[in-house]
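Data deposition worksheet. Section B asks for the primary sequence of the deposited chain exactly as it was used as input, without tags or linkers unless they were present during the calculation. Section C holds the resulting structure in token form. Section D is free text for depositor observations; keep each observation to a single sentence. Incomplete worksheets are returned to the depositor.
Section A, Depositor: J.P.
Section B:
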Amino acid sequence: MAENDIDVNELGEKIVRVLKTIYDPEIPVDIYELGLIYDVFVNEDRDVKILMTLTTPNCPVAESLPQEVQEKVKMIEMINDVDLELTFDPPWSQDLMSEEAKLALGML
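Section C:
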């Protein structure tokens, strides 16, 4: 593997670690465990596309949270560009939360 080659899986893991540091201000669980991140794509040019949602379309952080996600992921060394797409299809539901998130919120 050449020095400038990257392991896309390794980069994906770094992105997930960063996503786990971002919290919905109303819920004490990170956005990854909450199920707000639908998909993360990384191409060979180290461009990242993130497909995410919010708990509701009129979420108080509808403007700031996606921006925070984009900025924090873009700070990862080796990332070229970050494109974030916000979707409400399918709408977020508690079924998307991880077991860890449900446990933290006393739902299990």
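Section D:
The chain has a mean pLDDT of 91.
The radius of gyration is 14 Å.
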